[in-house]
Amino acid sequence: MTLSQTIDTFVQKLGLTGWRYECVASLIFVLICMLSVVVIGFLVNYLEILQMRGLAKVFGNKVAVFICNRLLFAGTVIHELSHAFFAFLSGAKVTKIRCFTLFSKDTLGYVNFQTRGGVFKRSFQLAFVSCAPTVTGCGFIALFLFLLRRPDLLLWQRAGLIYLLISVADHMSMSPQDIKNYVRGGIILFLVAFVFAVAFHHFL
After folding, report:
1. DSSP designation for 151
2. Domain spans of the chain?
3. How far apart (Å, rounded) are the C-alpha atoms in residues 85 and 77?
4. Is the CB of residue 78 less than 8 Å from the CB of residue 144?
5. Do residues 199 and 148 make contact, with C-beta atoms less than 8 angstroms apart?
6. Read out DSSP for 46-93?
7. Minimal CB count within 10 Å: which of 13, 94, 124, 125?
8. Angle at 24 between CA 23 and CA 26, to 5 degrees
9. pTM of this structure
């Protein structure tokens, strides 16, 4: 049973019908999704720190940096591209993007963007862009797991998908600043998501 089906079953037991049913079901769905995003983003960021410390303790700092930041570079590329794509979708202006920095010790990649529009629109853009790596990461992981179920995959194809899955999972984090931006624009993001959820629930 999917999340949507579970919520629908729960709301139906409350005896709600019509627009009340649609609004309550949409409200619960959006709240769960938004809270899940920030929890997943925070946990992945925390696990990244533990991973780096653990590898550094066993193999040394240089090997730890190589494994987490260089060997799994595909996750960084997808992380930064997702920031840029969500900025474009929300109407923000991407001023500079670097998907991967090979020799930098301070940063793996970055996306510089400028929010545009009124206060509410800028708040939405900040929140929307900040959660991009976690949202797209969950989507890619679901896709990779689905593809890995195919019995006709060659060994190199299966290995490539596993590498991409690990790389994306390792870099789908939300930094402390991302979480602050997400919380700051959370109300606006929630309202937009709620309207779309109600419309989707009503018409489909």
Report:
1. T
2. 16-203
3. 12
4. no
5. no
6. HHHHHHHHHHHHHH-HHHHHIIIIIITHHHHHHHHHHHHHHHHHHTPE
7. 13
8. 65
9. 0.88
